[in-house]
Protein 1
Amino acid sequence: MTEARYRSGPLVWCAILAATCLLLFLFQKILWLVVPFLFGLIIYYLLFPLQQRLVLGGMSRDASAALISSVAFTLAAGGLALMFPWITTHLVSWQGSATRYIDGGLLFIAETLAWIERSSSLAAKAHLGEQLTQQIVSLGDKLAGTYLTDAALTAAAWLPSLLLAPFLAFFFLRDGWRFKKFLSRAVPNAFFERTLYLLDQVDHTARLYFQGLIKLTVLDTLCLAVGLWLIGVSAPLMLGLVTAVLAWVPYVGSILGCLLVVLVAATDYPGDPAIAYSAIGLFIWVRLLDDFFFMPLTIGRSLKLHPLLTVVMIFVGGAVAGVAGLMLVLPLLGVVMVLGETIGEIITDPRLRARHAFARRLRQRMVTRDLRL
Amino acid sequence: MLNIFDKSKLSKRLDELKKMSLFGELTPRELKIVDGFMHERNYLKGEVIFDEGEEGQAIYVILGGQVLICHQGQAERPIATLDSGNFFGELALLDDAPRAAQARAAEDCTLVVLFRGDFLSLMVSHALIASKIALQLARHLGARLRTMVRSDPGPL
């Protein structure tokens, strides 16, 4: 009675895509909860192996969760407390640096366009450099005026909710396995084995994904930091870390990271565009390393999505929920896909449905045994 | 207070698990770790637990009641009837081959289920526990093989 492996049909896929878009739309409305939840999940998957070691050493799950969480969060809070005076001292100079880097970037663009004009008579006739520089400056002013204040206010509004992340991580560590059992009790016997297996696959994939993401970030940071240090760009470690974290947002994050690196390189060496080009080259090299070497080693093909669908969904995510949508769309689609395929697989299996119906009749007969006339 | 995670039955279940040959070698602490991976299910008399040919993902241990192992559609001619303390579907822990027979509840029964995925996780995170369970499983399969050889001493 071995059956061919289930493959979702167009209806199931339409439902999966619609559910992903709907969830993205809803998540955008409760971003203050979704973001800490995601961070909580990342912290949970990071601390989970340590908790397992303590459990193996003889500690109970509850005690190990409390110990691991308190040590990790005390370290994090201590680090932040130590850094706080330094951050407040440098805040004003950072503001000045931001303006300096933007000016440096604009100068780099102007120099590059001037070089293009010198090389191409067509570009020179069209006054390409002058026109593009004006448009970039006006676009920058418009963006800064329209969106930057709003974005800063929004970020400041839900930033305190990030404090939820450690609490969520603690409860994931302490009660995650109990919650899994609690959920499994809701699954009828007929569907239990297959559902639990597929949900276990979701958990396994998510664990691999988040742990891989952290490893990938560390590898990216190190490679970029070493490369930028060799080129001679300032603050290579910080720049490498920020760029690696930005790469969490597919495609758009990489472009922003590249822009950031170019801005810093162009500002550090205003008269030497070769440094900025070297930084771009380094960035592309690290991206290639990521795609062909690091990613298969860390994240792998955990989501198993078609490349076309991936790109289309990133655009859909951006359109439905902005930057948050860009970041959330792929993991969300991965989870909805597995859930949709699970439900599709179960409701299209006539034998499982028949077994469930039979079990319900048995239960009905049992509870009405003494109620017959 | 809302108590969705019922802990009251835990120690009783650990006592019952300790008596079973599959977990006989485990210390109480190790048993508690294994119990964290197990799911308790209740089946009514006649209910199908799994079908012949279905992809096996889990081993079932009988906490209470009786389970009938038979070929599909031949419940009246069971291959074996298993009581409390026995386990079945154990080959699913080793590979994902299709189930060799159907399992049905011969009477109302309570089972605990351990998934292969969780067993493989145990092998990574708690290798000692997994090896103790695997050893008991190997002994069980060895005993069954010897019984088969004795009952049919043809060429192997």
Protein 2
Amino acid sequence: MTLRGATALLALLLASGHAGARPETDPTPLHYADAAEETRFHALTATLRCVQCQNQSLADSDAPIAHDLRREVLALMRQGRSDAQIRQYLVDRYGEFVLYRPRMEPGTWLLWFGPAALLLAAGAGIALHLRRRGKTHEVPLPGDDQEW
Amino acid sequence: MTSASSTRRVLLVAGGLVFLALVVLLAWGVHRSGDPARDTLPSTLINKPAPKFDLPLLHSPDIRITPETLAGAPYVLNVWGSWCPACAEEHPVLTRFALTKRVRVVGYDWKDKREDALAWLEQRGNPFLLVVTDEDGSAAIDWGVVAAPETFLVDGKGMIRWKHSGPLTDEIIHDELIPRLSRLEQAQ
């Protein structure tokens, strides 16, 4: 294939897009009333996950839905809603997934305490094993006078 | 037999079980990676009332549509945009289904310019009974819309019964949408 052919193919592949392709128009940038509002907004959106680009926070993502959700979060802040209320608003619509820090509840106990429980179990297993081995027989140390 | 060797055997068996569990987990992960819908979030709205909205008709913006306008019988709500290549890919499938007149198919034009949407339907044909427009996408947040296309099934009482994210295929319509629709109709 010629270089030109390859370039054309690449352009075609890039243009074909996928389910998450973006709308033509980019929403207008957000304007903050004051520095305090901006600080609170950035702190809040950094703890929320973008529902489309799932490994980015709502603050970082450039997905169209992230633009819309940022605008919505700012609007809710201006309505006087607390951070907890805004998080709940998003959880109601998109599920627990939007929270980077999952809430403590029976459904997330395994997530919160699983690693610690695993570590404790492994530690207990090793301790038990060592104690039992210590009781039964001593491992003979190789003597210093061993001949090589 | 000493207790040390029996402990060793227990540890060996436990280690083997842990290893097997790991293999199963990894195999499941590899299997799942082939699923195109692996990143789809489950909708929080299943078996909940469809959100309130009040949106203009695409073809005559003076007329506004609310969930009450559509109540009384099931309908399928398809979220699309003229900017969305996957919606164009889905369009023939959706059109074939709409032509069977099995259920009302309502279009939800999302984050789109009116003239672009009209041209898109003009060019490809309009399978929808009616199309509502949500130009700035604010009403779609209540529906938990992430990316077009998405398709909802709403029953006659206005409850959301099913959602599919991504383009519809004949298989999905046949295996998932139609059986649910039949169940709704029997329940009525």
